[in-house]
Amino acid sequence: MEGGLSLLMSSPSPKASGDAPASSFSSGLAHRYNVFLSFRGEDMRSGFTGHLHAALDQRGITAFMDEEELREGEEIAPAILRAIGESRISIVVFSENYASSGWCLDELVRIVECRDTMGQIVWPVFYKVDPSQVRNQTGRYGQALIHRGERLESKGGDPEKVKRWREALTTAANISGWHLADQRESNVIQGIIRRVWAQLDRKKLYVPENVVAMDSHVNCMCTLLHMESNEVRMVGICGLGGIGKTTIAKATYNAFEHKFECCGFLSDIRETCKKSTNGGLLQLQEVLISEVMWDDGLKLGNVHRVTGMIKSRLCKKKVLIVLDDVNKLIQLETLVGGRDWFGYGSRIIIMTRDEHLLAAHGVDSIYKVKPLDSSTADMLFSSIVFQNSCPPPEYQDLSCKIVDYTNGLPLAIKVLGGFLKGRSLLEWKSALDKLKRVFNRDIFSVLRISFDGLDEHEKDIFLDIACFFKGWDISYAKMILESCHLDLDIGIAVLKDKSLITIELGMLEMHDMIQEMGREIVRQESPKEPGERSRLWSYADVIHVMTEGTGTNQVEAIMLALAAPEEVCFSAQAFTNMKKLRLFRVHNVYHSGDPIYFAAKLRWMEWPNCSVQSMPFNTGQEKLVHLDMSNSSIRELGKGFKLFRNLKLVNFSRCTLLSEIPDVSSLANLESLDLRECTNLVEVHQTLGGLAKVVYLNFFNCCNLSHFPSNLNSSSLK
Prior knowledge:
The chain is α/β, with parallel strands linked by helices. It folds into five domains: about 5-200, Rossmann fold; about 215-370, 3-Layer(aba) Sandwich (Rossmann fold), CATH 3.40.50; about 375-435; about 450-520, Arc Repressor Mutant, subunit A; about 525-700, Alpha-Beta Horseshoe (Leucine-rich repeat, LRR (right-handed beta-alpha superhelix)), CATH 3.80.10.
């Protein structure tokens, strides 16, 4: 038999997104064949070629023999030429008789042509033949070419063909390959196999060219991965949505994949499991085996069976596995359960928005991705909009404002940069004005994923922080939140783990984009009527609802602090329909007009300087925890005050018209009572002395106080 043998390799299924663009060699080709093995047909019966073929087959490379009809005639069949062109690697086995085959020589010419024009990888194997004979066409190679030339001449063939053969032989022989002389054939075959896989399964993942500071990220990851170590290490990458976790992981994968025997990158794990609740994990397991074990199209019906298969197949292999967008611990347990699942030197990289998952799975190190600093953010924005040039003078100020608005979030910079690229100065100004009113929907949709992963209790805490408490002292913010929410500590911990909030120097912080996302969620509850939203914080919305009386049962919290005092005429019906109102905190707002009354579910009331003269409640506020009406015009608390059974903190300081504190015997939870500078206060009821939980009392400058409890029995008083 004369001719070559082409080998078809089953390649991993392409990812839905994120793969690197094809190289110049592969662009436009179907890649039907990944390896083309060229050798003298009769050599298939020799030990080396047969063993090489078997070894490739054992590693998942399916052998495809040339059909008989393809070998008819003197000319090489077009199907063979096409197979060579569609292959990624050509391995040429130069045996003593290789040059005696016109088919092999024609294959070689095509192989060298594909190498020169498309960058195809070519590896020569010199099987019991000196490379110099191939390079210089001496010995049997010289004799065979003379014989082939004479045959061509006798048949009137192309006289240039022999010249092309000689040039192809010389070129191929100058390529570094393998020379089987005294080496063991099995060692050479294993070396070939390793090099084949190192090339065939090494797709570079797509990383945008304009990514900035990526070298720094990869260097940090290299340090955490301890690439020089032979241990199995798991490293997590965490941060808020759009911060660049996936891009960093892809760049790290590209930098180190050549160091591993097998590699796999599992994208969009959260989304895959969301779309297929029961089959998502099994699908991911099958993709993982496909990627790292070259078992394409594997279908197994049981998650637990595949879990055992992953461990048994990978436990002796050095692997690099990257898991993108993990949001459940079960995903880690079924995909990369333990370090004993993988061979020495393996590395597992896990990206998630939830830091707690990484801790729960016991990763070795965590890389927390932070927003870009202003200089780097400027560079990224300019690379997108102005092709790395500095903004033109007329765009300089607007560029700075846009970058400031993004607060270093790469996602926001890319979205807004792509939108503004090529637009006029007028359009830029209009876009910036719109951003002040409407949050960009593309950025919003990515960031909201983290919010949607919270339970209802966690969502309430997050929205309260986003609408009201960003930048607050954590202690004071927690006091308010605890009055409205149970299990606050675990809720705060979850938000922190998911990178939705941070605590810096005792202050409650969150990224500006995350805050804007939270506020946009509330705005979308009722885009046109603020009185139908759960939370109100902007001046225009609060004043509208208070003066027009448009508040509904949806309103849960209102907070407004003005820089200077302002008189507002509240509607008499302002709070009538706000049955769920739990938090009311306003500063420098003076009410004028009819009496107003709050609903019974109010928990936190903070309204210093208010002008009401009597308690603004219809009935006892059994849920009220905090009451601050300092410096107000209140004259009397009334008998109903003792019904505020959950009150802990009361502040009537500087209420100069208040003369009496009535019976407080039912206020068993009272901890703090501030009455300093209540200059007209005359009497404090004796029942105050019997409250056991009181910690703080202040009667400073209560100069007319004449009736006071004879004993203070609180063991907590400080």
